[in-house]
Amino acid sequence: MLYRIYIKRFLDIVLSSLGLVVAAIPMGLVAIAIKLDSPGPIIFKQDRLGQYGRVYKMYKFRSMCVGAEKMAGGVYSDNHDSRVSRVGKFIRATSIDELPQLWNVLKGDCSLVGFRSPLTYHPWPWEEYTDEQRKMFNLRPGITGWAQVHGRKTVEWNERIKMNVWYAEHCSFLLDVKILLMTVFKVLQNADNENVGQTVSVSESAAINKKDS
Length: 213
Known about the structure:
With 213 residues, the protein is mainly alpha-helical. It contains 7 helices and 4 strands, in the order H-H-E-E-H-H-E-E-H-H-H. The chain has a two-stranded antiparallel ribbon. The two termini are 28 Å apart. Mean pLDDT is 87; it is low at 201-213.
């Protein structure tokens, strides 16, 4: 309990501050490249579900054209998506697009390690999560997490949530260190970093939620 409430937050503040300082110049260069590559804002802001289901603005470097979510393709995107800009393909492949989330960590919206915060409407709205599934929201969402290093975008959402719940019940300093090290390895390999198709359907989620209720 001491680690979850105090030590974890202290480490988040220290490491995110250090990360923002170290990455300042690279982030500046990426910002210039995004601005020169396509019209629109440098930072993409999106509503996400955070701790206890509270909604917060998640920050990422913009990798797609403006208004991409309203175009054909919806929330799913792969490396062949025409909505992704030229610079966007590179920053996605290297996970550089995630760096602005260090500011979310510093603000207290996120942790370095936690569950990957879902959209407010996908895979389903907050009201449709079961009591068991909501256990994952007891901690802050993370830039990386147990589910991210065990399949990431290739895993169906119900399985991701089960892994997130497991993490919420077993969170510890050593586990977080393990996840961070595994994340570095995954990023270097660019593993599981592409959507392979829809990982949940409306009918499927409704059926499972009804069964779990």
